[in-house]
Structures are given as C-alpha cells and as structure tokens.
From TrEMBL:
SUPFAM superfamilies to which the protein is assigned, alphabetical: NAD(P)-binding Rossmann-fold domains
Protein known as: NAD(P)-dependent dehydrogenase (Short-subunit alcohol dehydrogenase family)
Coiled coil location: none
Originating species: Actinomycetospora succinea
Pfam families, per the entry: adh_short
Any one GO biological process: secondary metabolic process
One term of GO molecular function: oxidoreductase activity
InterPro entries referenced in this protein's UniProt entry, alphabetically: Fungal_SecMetab_SDRs, NAD(P)-bd_dom_sf, SDR_fam
GO cellular component term, pick one: cytoplasm
Transmembrane regions: none
C-alpha cells in the first residue's frame, strides 16, 4: 500500500488531501502540531504524527515514529504554511523581524522536513516530493500585476524561495519526482475563509501530484496544468 506524509494536516488543505488519499486506500501519516486533537474520518488509515516543521527535535522524533510505523515513505507533502501577521504591512514598513515567523514555517520548515525524511523517502516506491506553494510565489505572475492583490513581503517571497528550493531539489535528486503545486485561492483559515474555491478544488493539484508516479520532475502546477514560475 502507498504511504504519504503530509505536514500541516490538522485542518484545511492538508486534512482534506489526507482524507481524499485515505479514501483511495493510501496510508496517510498526518503531521500535526497537536495530533491528539486530529479528527480522523471513520474507516480511513490516517495516522496522526506529532510534527512541528519549525522544530528540529520534533521533526527528528517524527522520522523515528514514521519509520517505526511504515518503514518507507512513497510521498512527502510539504504543506504546512502560514500567511503571517505582516499581511497588512507595506514593504517600506516591513522589518526583517516581520519576516522571521513566515520564513521559519514556509521556507526553513520544508527544508528541515525534506532533509530529515529523504532517506525514508528514497526507500519508497517512485519517491515523490510535493511542495505546496502559491501563485503569489510566481515572479512572473507578481511582475505581471498579481502584486496588486498582495503587496506584502513575507508570504510571496517565502513561496518564491520555496519554488527555487524545489527547482534545485528537482535538478539534483535524480531518483525523486519533485512537483510544486498552487492550490488556488481556497476558503481556509489561512485567508479567514475568504477564498473562492472549495477544499475539494483546492486539493485537486495536491492529490494529482501525490498520485502521479511518472513526472516529469520540476513542474509548477495548479489544478488546470502547468503555470509560470
Ligand atoms: N488557502 C489558500 O488559498 C492557499 C493558496 C495557496 C497556497 N496555500 C498553501 O496551502 C498550504 C496549506 O494552507 P491552508 O490554506 O490549508 O491553511 P490552514 O487551514 O491555515 O492550514 C495550515 C496548516 O499548517 C499547519 N502549520 C502551521 N504552522 C505549522 C508548523 N510550525 N508545524 C506544523 N504545521 C504547521 C497548521 O497547523 P495548526 O493547526 O497546528 O496551526 C495547519 O494544519 C500552505 O502552505 C499555504 O501557503 C493556500
């Protein structure tokens, strides 16, 4: 049976992706900061794993727990992310400190988790790494006008960094299919449920990337196909 670890699976897109994959018969390790409070749908093989992506010790403990539970991992989904409190601050007024929490979660988190889980992942079948990014991280889209919808430094630049990190993983990890996904603007806690897509629509690209064993590696996709970096 295929196994996937999803970070930030306590709610929103991560929980819905876990639910959809488990419904298809996957064993899903659901990374959560508070695993005891995870609501697991009946009849699904969703196993809560304590995992704070900003904490080395938590990630190391999660590796051991996953290894003991399933031995190998087929897919790692770096989904945990935050918008940050700086969203109302103009670039000119943003301090380095305003970026710290968002970068800790959205940039250092995926690197910490990927580095720690790569050995387990490489023992999986057709190993895949899925990075949950955003069109706000697209330099091309932001330059073309999207910046007017979100003229703030932390979140877009964190996702742009994640995109570059993902390109470099794709270029250098010959045995892993790396896919970067943009869920689209989906009603979750991240945007105070203002997003216009449903959770089902928002997880289409994530589920497609998880279940695609062939690649090619190094693409940036939304639910309709390839999008610009
Ligand atoms: N919703 C959208 O419109 C949209 C669009 C583009 C991209 N995205 C991306 O999609 C991903 C999921 O976001 P969402 O919309 O589902 O938001 P959400 O409902 O706020 O969920 C975010 C998840 O990340 C977890 N998380 C936050 N910090 C964490 C940490 N340090 N360690 C582990 N988990 C942590 C949260 O866990 P807790 O419950 O413990 O806080 C929660 O499970 C994010 O990467 C986001 O940037 C979302």
């Amino acid at each position: 049976m295929s196994t996937a670890l999803i970070t930030g699976a306590s709610r929103g897109l991560g929980l819905e992706a876990a639910r959809r994959l488990a419904e298809q018969g996957w064993t899903v390790l659901a990374g959560c900061r508070e695993p005891a409070s995870l609501a697991i749908p009946d009849g699904t093989d969703i196993r809560p794993i304590a995992l704070d992506v900003t904490d080395d010790a938590s990630v190391a403990a999660a590796v051991k727990e996953v290894q003991d539970a399933v031995e190998t991992l087929d897919v790692l989904v770096n989904n945990a992310g935050i918008a940050g409190a700086e969203r109302e601050i103009a670039p000119a007024d943003t301090t380095a400190e305003d970026l710290r929490a968002v970068y800790e979660t959205n940039v250092l988190g995926p690197v910490r988790v990927t580095h720690a889980f790569l050995p387990l992942l490489r023992r999986g079948t057709h190993p895949r790494l899925v990075m949950v990014s955003s069109s706000l991280g697209s330099l091309q889209d932001m330059n073309a006008g999207r910046w007017e919808r979100y003229p703030h430094l932390a979140y877009p630049s964190s996702k742009a960094a994640l995109n570059m990190i993902s390109v470099l993983y794709a270029k250098t990890l010959a045995d892993v299919v790396v896919t970067v996904v943009n869920p689209g603007w989906t009603a979750t806690n991240l945007n105070a449920f203002q997003g216009t897509q449903t959770l089902a629509e928002g997880t289409d690209a994530i589920v497609a990337a998880v279940t695609d064993t062939t690649g090619p590696s190094g693409r940036f996709l939304d639910r309709d196909g390839e999008i610009p970096w």
